[in-house]
Amino acid sequence: MRRRTAISVTIAIAAAVPSLFSMPASAAPPAGACRDPEPARPVIADLPWAQQLLDLRSTWRHSTGAGVVVAVLDSGVDADHRQLRGRVLAGRDFFLVGDLRGNFDCVSHGTAVGSIIAAGPADGVGFRGVAPGARILPVRITDRELNDQGEPSPIDPAVVARGIRYAADRGAKVINLSLSGYGDFPAIRNAIRYAQSKDALLVAAAGNRQDSAPAASYPAAYPGVLGVGAIDIAGARSSGSQVGDHVDLVAPGTAVVGAARAGGHDYYDGTSFAAPFVAGTAALVRTAWPELTAAQVAERLMATASPARGGRNSREYGAGVVDPYRAVTERLSERDPLVLPEVALPAPDPAVVRTAAWWARTGASAKFGAGVVALSLVLAGVLAWALPRGRRRRWRPGRAERLPAAPSRDEPPEEIFLFPPPPVEERPRR
């Protein structure tokens, strides 16, 4: 089983130019765009554990995310994948120079993220996205997960910032950021504020570099951004999923299924692939509750989260595991919970108290009497055994038989011992 890991952001240089927003006819990568494109993967037919856990089929009776645009800032999204056809807009490429769209992918990372959000049904395939009625706006900000040295490819913060502003201006109501880093960059922070002013909800990966000294991870740590950690099939925090106050929710992020570029599926690990489960759920809520603001959608997602191992509002699990069904169907109240009155114990009945005291005294007396009788019987037995023996001996003391003398040990010469004798048997040296 081949597993993939998430993008981790530090920083490099890129440029950006305008692109299309219409639905494309073909999404093949432009000539020369992919240096080493990944091949297609086999189809995974089984229903993945994450989709089973989130009970999506029950949720789709109430909302599919129809009418909501979810922006995916990533390596692009392959619009030609059969489960994404007709669901991916042209978008824009902010990584390569030129008038390029963003609906192609060289490394499958963005395709997997987009498919977890909005993949549609396909014959013989159990996998589907959380919000199959939503539309994906691909915003391409990187070209590959790892550089030629096998290290995470750095991303220019200015490119990320332009991508966020572009998504907000194109009407994206949910923006998925499956990237993380330790740097607080003003350009990204200001772009996030701009998107929030456009009523966009931003969802970001919590990060995959957990160590003994947890640190804030950006952009998840920015105010108003939903930070998402990862759990495994047992509900435990995935190894590496970062811990901290920036973790608002958790979602499946270990061995989760997602689409691969050029066809098929793959298994993926990391908070990058937990974030789209929350982004897709946000799309469901924005369709079911269109009157809610982005901040209210975030509050709803946290209020309806299922309990996690760390308890409510822990640094490992946040508010809990995202729950699409509850997020869409439950009605929340803005009123504080009612205060329960204190329990007033009734005054005891005097007659009952007197009766209980009488029984207590009677029981104590009965126990004392029984103890005296038992002691008397024991003493009588001892006397019945001792008196006849004393008369026979005429009350002379008996003598115990002398113990036999310990036999002397006929020990062999020391030289025949292959190992030295135990310390208690060693004789003093002369």
UniProtKB/TrEMBL annotation:
Keyword set, alphabetical order: Cell membrane, Hydrolase, Membrane, Protease, Serine protease, Signal, Transmembrane, Transmembrane helix
Chain residue ranges for the region called Disordered: 395-430
Domain of life, per lineage: Bacteria
GO biological process, one term: proteolysis
InterPro entries: Peptidase_S8/S53_dom (IPR000209), Peptidase_S8/S53_dom_sf (IPR036852), Peptidase_S8_Asp-AS (IPR023827), Peptidase_S8_His-AS (IPR022398), Peptidase_S8_Ser-AS (IPR023828), Peptidase_S8_subtilisin-like (IPR050131), Peptidase_S8_subtilisin-rel (IPR015500), T7SS_pept_S8A_mycosin (IPR023834)
Residue ranges constituting the Peptidase S8/S53 domain according to the UniProt record: 65-320
Catalytic residues, chain numbering: D74, H109, S272
Protein name, as recorded: Type VII secretion-associated serine protease mycosin
Principal location: membrane
Pfam hit, one: Peptidase_S8
UniProt-annotated location(s): Cell membrane
Family: Belongs to the peptidase S8 family.
Ranges that cross the membrane: 368-387
UniProt-listed SUPFAM superfamilies: Subtilisin-like (SSF52743)
Gene label: mycP
PANTHER family: CEREVISIN-RELATED, PEPTIDASE S8
Signal sequence region: 1-27
GO molecular function annotations of the record: peptidase activity
Species lineage: Bacteria, Bacillati, Actinomycetota, Actinomycetes, Micromonosporales
Membrane topology term: Single-pass membrane protein
